[in-house]
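Q: what does this look like with heme C bound?
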Amino acid sequence: MAVLAGCRQDMHNQPKFIPLRSSEFYSDRRSARYPVPGTISRTVSGDLANCSNNASPECQESVIVDKEQLDPNSYYLTGKRGNVYGNDLPGDLPFKTDTPDGRQNILARGQERYTIYCTPCHSQLGDGNGMIVQRGFKRPPSFHVQRLKNAPLGWFYDVISNGFGGMPDYAAQIKPADRWAIAAYIRALQLSQNASETDVAAADRDQLSKPAEQGITIPDTSIISPAVTTPVTPVPDTQPKGNKR
Ligand code: HEC
């Protein structure tokens, strides 16, 4: 009897990792292991290389997922080479960065993601005066202070990935490729706030001194909203009563 019970115990206590439980076996103490670099996700149809010419969100997304399976210490996933933050975009982003159109795409994507995730605190201008800051949340520094103008792109990637001081991390919400897109957009935002006449193409420069377009009159809103007191007519209650579905 005792021998049989012993056998049963053996089957019950199989060596296994409970999901997300830590492990002493691996040096990074994660029981969940990264797939071997180069593993191709089952959701990717066909050749991955095709995706660099395919702008469909599904295809891009599948590449993004695949990139997440890279070596966790890669520049792509840390913003650092060794201990040094880099100031360039990783070469293997699912956005093309070597054509004007490609750069336009990554900035547009970055602007969209920035508007969703960062403006509530950092504001559309990046001056740190977002809506919830105006309602009392800790005020972040402006992106236009010299220290952050000098900060490398990898630093912005890192802050989004790991948070910073009073700022939470956005690793769960924003995929690595999009973190890079946001970092690139912030750099563009910084440049836009400090542009000088020489940044404008010579051919367009004379436009700068032209007076604003004629013929557009901006209405004076104080006239549009006069203190009219329209009597409020009560809306008759037409909803059938007691007619629950
Ligand atoms: C909930 C508000 C909030 C949101 C949303 C937010 N941040 Fe922040 N951020 C902060 C605060 C607060 C600080 C200052 C933290 C501190 O110094 O303790 C900060 C600081 C920073 C810094 C400066 C770090 C430094 O070197 O001083 C960067 C860069 C940054 N945020 C980027 C972002 C980006 C990019 C996003 C969007 C993905 C974002 N933040 C979203 C609140 C926010």
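Residues 22-72 form one domain. The pocket of heme C is lined by residues 117-118, 120-122, 137-138, 140-141, 156, 159-160, 164-167, 170, 174, 182 (CB under 6 Å).
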